[in-house]
Amino acid sequence: MKKSNSVAALALAACTIVLFGACKKNSDTPVNIFAGITYQTEDQMGRPAINTVFNLGADKDAFNTTIPSAMGAAFQSKFQSRLLALNPAYTTNALGLSASAFTGLLATDVINVSTTGTTTFFDGTNVLTGRALGDDVIDTELLLIFGGSAGTSNPGLTSDKVNANDKPFLSSFPYLASPW
User: I want to staple 79 with a disulfide (CB 3.0 to 4.6 A). Which of 10, 48, 54, 92 is the partner?
Assistant: First the structure.
């Protein structure tokens, strides 16, 4: 009996070493789980589709591993060039933001949270103050990129035509609908 417990403990230790050993190591962003081993972020997505739309090639991986405080300086000008390539007629969007101001906001990929108002991605008044489960973030992003100052330019480009989750969200925790 004692021997089988030792074998089980040894197997668990071996699995743990393999699991953590498979993570990409990088000494620039240490998170010490075990002495001598460090780990780094491989993906982040505060705002869906931003990296997908505004970065090309190797910039996608660089964006995912850049700490948020350095993102604006590293990516804003690239985002602005990409925005103007996607929509050469862009002057301001429905928020009244110029290309520079808008891409500066997007280049730092974090979810802002309002502690005093509505938590929403965009409801016509409140903007980027968080994300509620039912927020249509892709439509909002398309509207802000292609909708112009009144939000009515390019109507064929301002919606993905997916207007709701396929199942209703729950009214209590965990809020997400069952996947089946």
Answer: 54
